[in-house]
Amino acid sequence: MLFDIKEWFTDERASAMTLFEVTHGCTPSKMKAKKGACGIFQAAMVADTNLVMEVVLKEHMDIFKGVSSLVDAGGALGAAAAAIAKALPHVKCTVLDLPHVIVGAPTSHDVQYVAGDVFEYVPPADAILLKWILCIWRDEDAVKVLRRCKEAIPAGGKVIIFDGVVDSGASQNVILKETQVLFDIMMMGIDGVERDEQQWKKMFVEAGFGDYKFTPVGHRSIIEVYP
What is the pLDDT of residues 12-54, one digit of tens each? Predict the structure, then answer.
């Protein structure tokens, strides 16, 4: 995709599309629907999740304190939920995703899979996990998802978000800065959205939440959002 940036910036026809469409001739969702492409995408997401969850469960286990049930909304094949269920057997873990995604999920006694649309309904639980999915939607759609999540949690529950927070100031590490720049380019390629703390806060308020907490983890963050 990087080699098509010049065309994207200079060609009027190309500038009306995303960088991903300029390179591949279709949207990311259509690409995933093509034979073989969905499997590649899901494999990449599982690999990313395995890395993220290893760090989270080793260094930030406290985010699951008091949680007895959790729904991984948009959780695809359930790698995050499976990791949580293994580390915390007392937590009832459920994965919510679209029917064509859930059909490819592995058989598991520790994780329940529910086919559905996160824009319409999220099963009730103490905590709702949103791992790296709000970044693919514009604010109005992200707020819709957050509202469904708020409806699903009790008064003492929360939404746990794994996503990027631009300019979090968590580290001056050069490697992390370079990683963030590469991530910026990747998000540009998929027409994704990156947000700073104030932009996140604005969405939380619009969705009806009352408080939040950021915990930087590398170039991403754990965001806990409370009703």
Answer: 676 667 666 767 677 666 665 565 545 555 565 666 676 788 8
Task: Print the domain residue range for 111.
Answer: 36-226
Domain count of the fold of the chain: 2
pTM: 0.80
DSSP the chain: -GGGHHHHHH-HHHHTS-HHHHHHSS-HHHHHHSTTHHHHHHHHHHHHHHHHHHHHHHH-GGGGTT-SEEEEET-TT-HHHHHHHHH-TTSEEEEEE-HHHHTTPPP-SSEEEEE--TTT-----SEEEEES-GGGS-HHHHHHHHHHHHHHS-TT-EEEEEE--BT------HHHHHHHHHHHHHHHHTT----BHHHHHHHHHHHT--EEEEEEETTEEEEEEE-
- Check whether residue 13 and residue 51 sit in a common domain: no
pLDDT digits (tens, 9 = 90+) for 142-158: 999 999 999 999 999 99
Claim to verify: residue 140 and residue 168 sit in the same structural domain: yes
